[in-house]
Specification:
Elements lengths: L1 E2 L5 H11 L15 E6 L2 E7 L8 E6 L2 E8 L18 E9 L9 E5 L2 E7 L8 E4 L6 E4 L4 E3 L3
Length: 155
Amino acid sequence: MLMRSDPFRELDRLAQQVFGATQPGTWSRPTVMPIDAYRAGDEFVVAFDLPGVADDAIEVDVERNVLTVRAERRPLDLGDGAEMQVGERPLGVFARQLFLSDALDADRIRATYDQGVLVVRIPVAEKAKPRKIAITGGGAPREVTAQGDVRTIEA
């Protein structure tokens, strides 16, 4: 249902480990966010990890079967006189693009955000769902499902 979109993901991760992450408060190119993706019945579900991101800092767009999720983790408001001692959490814009197959209905996507996890639900398109096909001629009418199961239709 999903097609891989970034063949260089492992190379980016290795380069980030070797050369170090960007300094807190600096802006760089979008960073990949981890996901889980699975099919549950007649919908495809993708869960994005976005800890520490406010819900108003998340954008979900679909254009030509490409799902794009952008999120911005903003710096903490430390208040007057506070000085950062350790700043390891990455800040800035995070983005992820997923190429959706034609078997998914991109017009009916729903998204929810709770406890740092964005869950995007994409229904399976009607044309991709299993359907029964009636067979006529040669005796009693029969039905064949898209999975190949055959049954006789009682008249």
